[in-house]
Amino acid sequence: MPAAAALLALATVLVPAADAQVPGGIVDDDPAIREYVLENASGARVRFLNYGATMTGIEVPDRAGRRANVVLSYRRESDYRRGNEGNWFGSIVGRYAGRIADARFPLDGRTIQLTANSGPNALHGGGGQGPDRAIWSVRPFSDEQGVGAVLRHVSPAGTQGFPGTLTITVVYRLGDDNAVTTSISATTDAPTVVNLTNHAYFNLGGTGARTVMDHRLSIAADRVIVTREGGIPTGVLAPVAGTPLDFRDPHAIGERIEAADGLAKPRAGYDHGWVLQGGVTATPRPVALLSDAASGRTLTVETTEPSLQFYTAEHFDGKTAGSAGPLVKRAGAALETQHFPDSPNKPSFPSTTLRPGEAFRSTTIWRFGVEAGPERP
Q1: How far apart are CA 213 and CA 222, in angstroms?
Q2: How far does the chain reach from its first CA to its final CA, in angstroms?
Q3: Among 88-97, 220-229, 255-264, 323-332, which stretch is predicted with the lowest mean pLDDT?
Q4: Which pLDDT value is given to residue 31?
Q5: What's residue 83's pLDDT?
Q6: Is 226:236 a contact under the CB 8 Å cutoff?
Q7: Cβ(121)–Cβ(100) under 8 Å?
Q8: Which of 7, 75, 162, 262 is most buried, by CB atoms within 10 Å?
Q9: Peptide bond into 95 cis (omega under 30)
């Protein structure tokens, strides 16, 4: 084992008492669900559950070296089981991340009907037992690049209505440079469609009540996916130039947010898919930069995917209890790297069809750092 990295360790203690809490971890109510932690030499940590391959924490330092969790999370694992659909905090979502119109799509001359869970549409796979609700196997490892874990889940044919038995492998890795890598692969025994991502919400100031409106964001995208009611793409990819969706140069998320619905009706705030420069790539390239001047924390997003869905948590209203207290509107920013929504119904979009003998592969890196500057209260 490299001296610069610590081995993955089991972070939970299986205790029956409902209020028993593991220091630094979540409350464990179900002995089948365990929380794990990755820790590197500098003390940065990644926490995740074997339930949904769900990241429950990413603890990285600010400019003064103080660590804080920068992803929204619950305090109890039972909250993930009962209430995470609709939030999907840190889970692997699918079998199709994003929306599919009318919860159906054509495939090889057949119409595949899914379980609708967003009006008439399917969102993040639709209703039912998706990968975000499954118990995954976990195998730890350590190498010269850091520490990590291999998680595996077999999604039976017919799950959420999707054909094919889908075998999904996710590798989480924490490097000594505070880079968190998610590598996802999948194979099938019958033709199907696949679009998988991690659905973390970030707040670089820490997961308290402060919103992300003063975070600065840049996205390497010249175009955005135009949507109609329900967030369903029209098929048009529109230029961002001259619109509130132009993040080619960094600016505060809150600067233009109230005017951000011009290309997505009727929507509030940001919940749009940006068409990333370079399309699908063999290796991850930088596509977005998020920064928080108050803490000094920065997040560079690198990915192989062709699209970034940026969502500002418009549905939070203070009634959802997060690990650090009630979650208010715009308390976090989701930066979902994925293929386009509704691609199975849009032949002009990059294909998401997966056939036997092929492999779905997607890699995203969250590279955390700090920038110099005066601290703010």
Answers
A1: 22
A2: 40
A3: 255-264
A4: 76
A5: 67
A6: yes
A7: yes
A8: 162
A9: yes
Q: What is the mean pLDDT of residues 103-120?
A: 97
* Three-state SS letters, 102-131: HHEEEECCEEEECCCCECCEEECCCCCCCH
H/E stretch holding 78: helix 77-83
Distances (CA, A) of 52 to 10, 80, 89, 123, 205: 17, 9, 10, 16, 25
Residues 283/263, Cβ–Cβ less than 8 Å: no
- Cα-based distances in Å from 18 to 25, 29, 323: 14, 6, 16
Give residues with Cβ within 8 angstroms of 356, minimum separation 6. Answer: 187, 188, 189, 190, 191
The single-letter DSSP state of residue 160 is G
**Average pLDDT of the segment spanning 106-112:** 98
pLDDT surpasses 60 at 114: yes
Q: Which of 39, 59, 85, 336 is catalytic?
A: 336
For residues 95 and 153, is the Cβ–Cβ distance under 8 A? Answer: no
In whole angstroms, how far apart are CA 342 and each of 20, 195, 242, 347?
43, 10, 26, 10
Structure confidence at residue 10 as a pLDDT band (50, 70, 90)? very low
The secondary structure of residue 54, as a DSSP letter, is -
Residue 268 DSSP SS3: coil
Phi and psi at 244, nearest 5°, equal: -65, -5
User: What is the pLDDT of the chain when averaged over all its residues?
Assistant: 90
pLDDT tier, 2 (very low <50, low <70, confident <90, very high otherwise): very low
Active site residue 199: yes
Considering the candidates 153, 199, 272, 339, report the single residue annotated as catalytic: 199
Q: Mind listing the pLDDT tens digit for each residue in 268-288?
A: 799 999 999 999 999 999 999
